[in-house]
Design goal:
- The protein is an alpha+beta fold.
- Helices cover about 35% and strands about 30% of the residues.
- It contains 3 helices and 5 strands, in the order ααββββαβ.
- The chain has a 5-stranded antiparallel beta sheet with strand order 4-3-2-1-5.
- The radius of gyration is 23 Å and the shape is globular.
- The relative contact order is 0.16.
């Protein structure tokens, strides 16, 4: 019985420490993905010249930096990526021109639009 009390005390006294560690892990900065956009540019440069030319636009959206990558031609999605180039949605393009429907508010809520790259070919 005494061993059980010691065990319970040890577990109970370590709970605040565990909670602190979990809380501090959640506040760590996001991974550095700055090179990722350069990877996307290199990928687009390997494709045939687009008409219109490929473009990458940077925006602020939902509290983070995102990249909108245009398509080369007709009826293709305009794809929105996070900083690490994970696909978030397609706010426009496609057969209807309205994207995939997963972020219809993107153009109304996004700010700080900046051209990052336009294919010079």
């Amino acid at each position: 019985m005494r061993n059980l009390r010691i065990f319970c005390w040890a577990v109970a006294s370590s709970l605040p420490l565990l909670a602190f560690q979990c809380g501090s892990a959640a506040s760590e900065p996001a991974p550095d993905c700055a090179a990722s956009i350069q990877t996307k540019i290199a990928e687009l440069q390997t494709l045939p010249k687009g008409n219109p030319a490929y473009e990458i636009w940077q925006y602020a959206y939902q509290g983070r930096k995102v990249y909108l990558v245009t398509s080369s031609c007709c009826d293709q999605y305009i794809t929105l990526y996070d900083e690490c180039l994970n696909v978030l949605c397609a706010p426009s393009g496609g057969l209807t021109g309205k994207g995939d429907g997963r972020c219809p508010e993107f153009y109304q809520l996004s700010t700080d639009r900046q051209l990052v790259w336009r294919d010079p070919r």
